[in-house]
Amino acid sequence: MKFEINREECIKCGLCIKDCVTGAIEQDNQGFPQMTSKDSCINCQHCFAICPKGAIKFDENEAQNAESTNYDDILSLIKSRRSVRQYKHENVSEEKLSKLKAMLKYIPTGCNSHSLHFSVVEDLAAMDEIRDKVNSKILNSFVYKIFAPIFNKFSKTKDALKNGEDIIFRNAPHMIVVSSPVTAPCATEDPIIALSYFELYAQHLGLGTCWCGFGQISVKLFPEICDILQIPKGYVPVGVMLFGEPAIKYQRIIQPKPYVISSVKGDFKTHKRNIFEVIIRFITNFLR
Ligand SMILES: Cc1cc2nc3c(=O)[nH]c(=O)nc-3n(C[C@H](O)[C@H](O)[C@H](O)COP(=O)(O)O)c2cc1C
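# flavin mononucleotide complex -> structure
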């Protein structure tokens, strides 16, 4: 990793030092910032992003100015996003696929580990093959009594599969699978965040998306599918999302049930807790 200061440009404002999350930058004896602890730098590049003069060079990156954002557009995107379960049986254009892939590197990860792996099923033929393999593997496993409790719970899914419906992959032409190294600091959270970003950007491009919990279980269950998806050793597939050109259009915004929001301000209303309440609180907090 290369961190360089252009001393002609630097105005010694100290913004890079103040914004460094790990305190890896300090002032040298002339007041210029210097990286004193390369080991603690997590490569978040906040110093590079915040510098008003563009005086910091991080690796070989050329400085690119931040783009202004229309926040109303983002809110309408969030409100209009729907899970799409009906897709056109065709490939998404190369242009949209490359835009989606180019976006992925901007996704945040815990401790800036940037260790996610993305498997993008880029063509319909590959997706059809995966779909056939998974659906037939699941149909075959119906004979094993050991799985009966699971299948009984999802009896409608079982019947649909038997009738040849693609209840798992919704006939989608593509999917993206995000895997994380078991050792990553936020191995569970990172892939979910990644797919949330992916979903919003894909829908902004006019594509349909759908989280695929059943797909995730299927990928985990069948090592052959992990191999097809080129999931590296030591990585766990955590999130699966279907995507493609939608065959339907939602005309209006739904009216979701509001979540409970506690407005926390001054004047805390706390009460004396007994030991059982404390224990239950701890158990609840650390259950997941
Ligand atoms: C973690 C997660 C897993 C999901 N798994 C599936 C799935 O396997 N199949 C499916 O059709 N929808 C799946 N969904 C979509 C939800 O059912 C959907 O978000 C919900 O019905 C609300 O609809 P909306 O996304 O259009 O607001 C999943 C959603 C999430 C967040």
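# post-check
Residues 82-83, 85, 210-214 surround flavin mononucleotide (CB under 6 Å).
Residues 63 and 165 are 50 Å apart (CA to CA).
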